[in-house]
Specification:
It is globular and about 70 Å long. The strands form five sheets. It has a six-stranded mixed sheet, sandwiched between helices. Helix 2 packs antiparallel against helix 3 and helix 5 runs antiparallel to helix 6. 52% of the residues are buried. Strand 4 and strand 5 form a beta hairpin. It folds into three domains: 131 residues, Serine Threonine Protein Phosphatase 5, Tetratricopeptide repeat (Alpha Horseshoe), CATH 1.25.40.10; 156 residues; 197 residues, Rossmann fold. The protein is an alpha/beta fold and 544 residues long. Helix content is 44%, strand content 15%. InterPro entries: CHAT_dom, TPR-like_helical_dom_sf, TPR_rpt. This is Tetratricopeptide repeat domain protein. It comes from Coleofasciculus chthonoplastes PCC 7420.
Length: 544
C-alpha cells in the first residue's frame, strides 16, 4: 500500500484492493457516516475556494475515509476529485494525477444504470468532473497526448454505455474503444485523410461564475501530427459576462425564437463571429487549405448544440465556404461507423423515403413541402415515397433494418430532461401514438449507409455527462454509419430545396460531406437567411 502525505497528518490510501475493505471504526450508522462525510467534503470545497489548501486537503481526506467506511463509491470519487483539486492548486501534479485516476477506478465499479436517478446524476457529474480535472493536471505536466487520451476516454465511456444498451453484442464493439491509443487516433485521421479537431470544455467549480470554463483543443492532422491549443475565454467572460456554455445556450434560444431574420447574410453576426474567434482562430493555421478536404469536429457538451458551418471569420466568410465539415461525438466513434460501413451486407439496397405523415401526432401541423420533398427524392432514386396516413410506425419500422438509405421528412421533438424520449413523428393509429423515440431506435438493428432526419430540432437532446442522448446518437448506436440531422427548427420550403439539392449532388458525387456542403452553398444563394441553410450537420462516415 502506498501512502501520500501532503503536509497533513492523514495518509491517503491508494491500494484499490483496500478501498472498500477497511473494517468500520465509527460507531454510528452508514447514513450518519455519509452525512458526516458530506459535511467534511463541503468544508473542504469552501476551504479550496478560500485557498486554504492544506486544510482543504485534510478535510477531503477525512471525507474519503468516511466514504470508504460506508462503501460509497461515488462519494469516494467525489472526495478524490477535490483532493485532486487541492493537490493541483498546490502544484503537486503527479499526486493529483494519482488521486484522479483512483477516482475513475472507483466509478468504474458503479453500475452505469443504477436504480436511483440521483445516484445516476451524481455518478455522471463526478465522472465528468474527474476527467476534466485530469486533463488540466496532465496539461500542467506537459503531457499533451495523454490529456487527449483522457478526453477521448471520457467520451468513449459514455458511448460504450450507449452501444451496449442498443446492441447486445456491444461489448465486442466497445472493447477496442475502451482504452484508445494515440496510434489508433492517428490511424483514424490518416485513413480518412481528414483533420480531426477535438474540443474539451474544462469547468472549474471553484471559480467565479463567468470565469469558470477553459477550452482545450487538439488538432490531429492527416499526417498524424498532434497539436494542442488552449482558447482564451477570458474575453468572452468579461465582455458577455457569461460562460461559453451559457453563451451557446443564448445563441440557440435566439435561433429558436427567430430573432435573427432575413437580411443577415454577409453581415458579421456577432455571436457567430465570436464563436469563430473562440473555436477556430486558435487552430486556423492547422486547417487544410483545400475546401474539399474533410474537417471532422469532435465537440463536447454545449458545443454539440451549435453548427460549425455559419461561424464567421474577420471578413464575414462562413466556415462552410472554406471547409467540408463533419462531426462525431468521439474520435473512436469513427471506428464504429467505419466498421458498420465495411460490414454492411451487399443485399441492403432499399431506400426508405417518408414525408409528411398524416395526421400528425399531438397538435403538430401538416408539412406539405415535406411531402413534396419526399416525392421528389423518391423519384430521383426510382422508389415510392410513404406519406400521409400510410406512414405509421407499423409500416415504417419493419423496413428500417433492410434499408440502405432512410429519409424521414417530418416533425421531430426533443426532450431536454430525458433525451431518450426525443422522437420522430409518424402517423398515429388506434394502438400507437405515432412517436418513434430514441429509446425505441436503440432496439433496432440498422444497416443504413445514411439516415437523414429532415425535421425540426432533431439534433438536440439532453446533455448528460459527456454525451448527447439524442436521436442521432441512437441511430449511430443502432448501426447507421452516417446521420444528417438539423440543429434547430427549419422552415419547410428551404429544407425541401436543400434536401433535393443534396440528393442530386449525391448522385454525382458519393462523398456525403461534399454533397451536403454544395447543397448548403446553393441553398445559401437562394435562401440567404442563416436559419434556412445552416442547421444541418453530417455525423459519422462520408464515403459509402
Amino acid at each position: 500500500m502506498v501512502s501520500i502525505f501532503v503536509g497533513v497528518s492523514v495518509p491517503l490510501r491508494l491500494n484499490s484492493t483496500e478501498l472498500f475493505s477497511k473494517t468500520p471504526l465509527l460507531a454510528f450508522s452508514t447514513n450518519a457516516r455519509k452525512a458526516e462525510a458530506e459535511r467534511w467534503l463541503n468544508q473542504g470545497i469552501e476551504q479550496l475556494r478560500q485557498q486554504e489548501l492544506d486544510a482543504a486537503i485534510q478535510s477531503s481526506q477525512q471525507a474519503l475515509t468516511l466514504y470508504q467506511d460506508s462503501r460509497d463509491r461515488v462519494g469516494i470519487a467525489q472526495s478524490l476529485n477535490y483532493l485532486g483539486w487541492g493537490l493541483y492548486q498546490n502544484g503537486q501534479y503527479q499526486a493529483a494525477e494519482q488521486m484522479l485516476r483512483q477516482g475513475i477506478q472507483s466509478l468504474a465499479s458503479v453500475s452505469p444504470h443504477p436504480k436511483s436517478q440521483d445516484i445516476q446524476s451524481q455518478r455522471l457529474e463526478t465522472q465528468a468532473a474527474i476527467y476534466q480535472l485530469l486533463q488540466k493536471v496532465l496539461i500542467a505536466q506537459g503531457k499533451i497526448k495523454e490529456a487527449l487520451l483522457v478526453s477521448e476516454q471520457s467520451r468513449v465511456r459514455w458511448v460504450s454505455e450507449l452501444v451496449n444498451r442498443g446492441d447486445p453484442n456491444g461489448s465486442t464493439i466497445t472493447a477496442a474503444m475502451a482504452e484508445p491509443t494515440i496510434e489508433q487516433i492517428q490511424q483514424i485521421a490518416q485513413e480518412r485523410n481528414a483533420t480531426l479537431i477535438e474540443y474539451s470544455i474544462i469547468d472549474n467549480p471553484l471559480a467565479e461564475a463567468n470565469q469558470s470554463e477553459e477550452l482545450f483543443i487538439w488538432v490531429i492532422e492527416p499526417t498524424g501530427k498532434i497539436t494542442f491549443r488552449q482558447s482564451n475565454l477570458t474575453q468572452l467572460g468579461q465582455k458577455e459576462k457569461t460562460t461559453l456554455t451559457d453563451y451557446v445556450s443564448n445563441i440557440r434560444q435566439s435561433l429558436a425564437a427567430s430573432q435573427w431574420g432575413v437580411g443577415l447574410s454577409r453581415r458579421k453576426i456577432p455571436p457567430f463571429r465570436q464563436l469563430y474567434q473562440v473555436l477556430i482562430e486558435p487552430i486556423a493555421d492547422k486547417l487544410p487549405t483545400d475546401p474539399n478536404a474533410h474537417v471532422i469536429f469532435i465537440p463536447q457538451q454545449s458545443l454539440l448544440m451549435i453548427p460549425f458551418s455559419p461561424l464567421q471569420d474577420e471578413l464575414g466568410n462562413y466556415l462552410l465556404e472554406k471547409h467540408t465539415i463533419l462531426t462525431a461525438p468521439a474520435i473512436m466513434v469513427l471506428d464504429i461507423t467505419r466498421r458498420t460501413r465495411v460490414n454492411r451486407p451487399d443485399s441492403v439496397q432499399q431506400w426508405l423515403v417518408v414525408g409528411n405523415p398524416h395526421p400528425m401526432p399531438g397538435e403538430f401541423s401538416p408539412l406539405p413541402a415535406a411531402e413534396q420533398e419526399a416525392q421528389a427524392i423518391a423519384s430521383l432514386v426510382n422508389t415510392q415515397a410513404i406519406t400521409g396516413e400510410v406512414a405509421t410506425k407499423a409500416e415504417i419500422v419493419p423496413q428500417m433494418p433492410a434499408s440502405r438509405v432512410i429519409h424521414l421528412a417530418t416533425h421531430g421533438i426533443f426532450d431536454e430532461q430525458q433525451g431518450w424520449e426525443s422522437a420522430i413523428a409518424l402517423a398515429p393509429t388506434q394502438t400507437d401514438n405515432g412517436w418513434l423515440t430514441a429509446r425505441e431506435i436503440l432496439d433496432l438493428n440498422l444497416n443504413a449507409e445514411l439516415v437523414v432526419l429532415s425535421a425540426c430540432n432533431t439534433g438536440r437532446g439532453s446533455i448528460s455527462g459527456d454525451g448527447l442522448a439524442s436521436l442521432s446518437s441512437a441511430l449511430i448506436a443502432s448501426g447507421a454509419s452516417s446521420v444528417i440531422v438539423s440543429l434547430w427548427s427549419i422552415p419547410d420550403s428551404p429544407t425541401a430545396f436543400l434536401m433535393q439539392e443534396f440528393y442530386a449532388n449525391l448522385q454525382q458525387n458519393s462523398d456525403k460531406a461534399q454533397a451536403l456542403r454544395k447543397a448548403m452553398l446553393t441553398t445559401m444563394e437562394k435562401h440567404p437567411d442563416l436559419r434556412d441553410w445552416a442547421a444541418f450537420t453530417l455525423i459519422g462516415e462520408s464515403i459509402p
